[in-house]
Amino acid sequence: MKMQGRSVFTYDVYAPTTVTTMLRPRRQEGQSIIQEGFNIEPSVPFSEYTDIYGNPCQRTILPVGRVTITTEVQANVNKTKEIPNPAPAYMLVGDLPDEIMHYILPSRYCESDLHEINMLAMEIAGNVEPGYAQVEAIRTWIHQHVKYQYGTTNSATTALDVARNRIGVCRDFTHLAIALCRNLCIPTRMTVGYLDKLKDMDLHAWFDAYLGGEWYTFDAVQEKTEGYRIEIAHGRDAADVAMVTQYGNATLQSLHVEVQLLEPEA
Questions:
Q1: Distance CA 136, CA 183 (A)
Q2: Cα(223)–Cα(85) distance, rounded to whole angstroms?
Q3: pLDDT at 265 over 70
Q4: CA distance 251 to 238
Q5: In what order do the strands lie in the sheet with 229-235?
Q6: pLDDT > 60? residue 228
Q7: Range 2-78+243-261 classified under CATH 3.50.30.60
């Protein structure tokens, strides 16, 4: 399926401000980039590098005044991977590849080692068959018990906060899911990008769980994980996949996101 995504960030910059961004798409299996664009207005030079997770990153200094960052991508993408039958199995920690191990550790926003998180994980999935069934039980529970509402959380909100308050947005749903899965020793990562099936269009966050030697997508915001996605970045939590990180005096005034499927869905 051919899919297109576009995002426009508008900032008011009050002093020259260094920023790093993660706004260009990943090039990986299941996602073939046809064309893309990255533009800063007024034009300034920027450099690029790849972080430890393989995410393409950009770095520049924004000038004083109104600054607009526009990114566009058109890609051939596969539909969200369906879970095979039989479902992928739980992998013992001793059998995990070395490069997967850090995805079972606690991280800044996902306090998977806390007793309160453990109690909730046991309540939701303690009596469920290890592996896919546990992850899906956690995903379903969050969808049913956490209210989706803008303006109720911020950049300091963690999985523990969401477990207690039961309200948030896609970032918060994802952090809680990651913490609960990691507490059960299931490697889990946060992924951000474009999704075609969103009621309120925005850049989106979901989570991937490592099961049976592969990564599988789960989305607690949706009633059922489905749709087409363009992945921009993945990492342990939001600290690793921030779309824009600034080091200076700038204020985000608006963010406009558009997503479109360019071919009719079969």
A1: 15
A2: 20
A3: no
A4: 19
A5: 214-218, 204-211, 188-195, 229-235
A6: yes
A7: no
